[in-house]
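pinging the channel bc i need a second pair of eyes. not urgent but kinda urgent?? the chain im working w is below, pasted from the shared doc
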Amino acid sequence: MFQQSRVRLIIGVVLLLALGAGVWAWSTAGHENTDDAQVDAHVTQMAARVGGTVTKVAVDDNQLVEAGALLVQLDPGDYQVAVDKARAELADAEANAVAAQSSVPITSTTAASNVTTARGGITQAQSGVAASEKEIEAARARIVSAQARLREAEANATRSARDVERLRGLLAKDEVSQQMFDATAATAEAQKATVDSARSMVAEAEAGLRVAESKLAQAQAGESQAHAELATAQTGPSQITATKARASAAEAHVQQARATLAQAELNLQYTTVKAPVRGVISKKGINPGQVVQAGQPLLAIVQIDDVWVIANFKETQLKDMRPGQRAVIAVDAFGGREYKGKVDSIAGATGARFSLLPPENATGNYVKVVQRVPVKIVLDPGQDPEHLLRPGMSVTPRVYLK
């Protein structure tokens, strides 16, 4: 009886050992784990977008800040002056643009009026030329008529003078009466006066001709001037084009001034550095009074609300690993406390390919080394409500392949 009980005990122990071995083999074959893994999170490096003197640092290292919270304040004085100057330049540019735009219709109206006036001047000058030419013709006709009367008067005066001389000899012989002689002498004197009158008429007609010729010259000069004015007035379209171009340039200057003002206002806003996300302040390297340059790092913000695990599995462990598989992460810092998650993605290359000095295997001294591939594991919602996980913590993830 005792012997049978001992045999049953031995058989039971063997069965338990076999069952345990089976369970261990099944569990080992159904998951992969690695101790080369760390917690990771987004780390936002905050840098100055403009240079200036730090007047206030509103946070300390390891302080939790909300999105939009003030981090650093730079002296805004110089940038406020730049904004005021840009606004003044914009106002000046807008005034110039309004003046340039108002010049366009004025120039158009003036150009059209100048063309009409110049054409009217040409017509008037041509009328003056025609009238002057007619006056010249009339003056020349008067000269011809006066010269004819002068010749007639001179002929009559010559004949009367001869009659007087002939009667003078007859009067001395008492062959004619004194009365007849006196009448003939009076006629001769009248003929001389007629000659003088005819000569003055000729001189007057010649003077009239010279006046008419002077008027013609003036009218022709006026016509030339009117043609020149018309030619100048006909450049109106070019003047309108130039005026419109100046108006466009003034409007472009307005746009440039607006852009300058916008940039100045942005620079003024950049003097206030705010937190873009919620997180913990780290690596604060500035203090009030310090002068910083644009692009200089100020501090970092660690987004502890969104953490994940980067596990470097051996390439031989990835045969059956796929995104979406369940994972359990044991955190060393908390005594192996476990967090649930799942595989999010597998890196596109091994970690060695992204190292500072990637291995070069074309040297002839190649030694095969098992490579590790980064695998991203994300936590299930609500796994870290206290936000205890920090980037860089060592963890041991276990991925269930089945």
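so The first helix runs from residue 2 to 29. and The two ends are 46 Å apart (CA to CA). — does that match what u expected or am i reading it wrong
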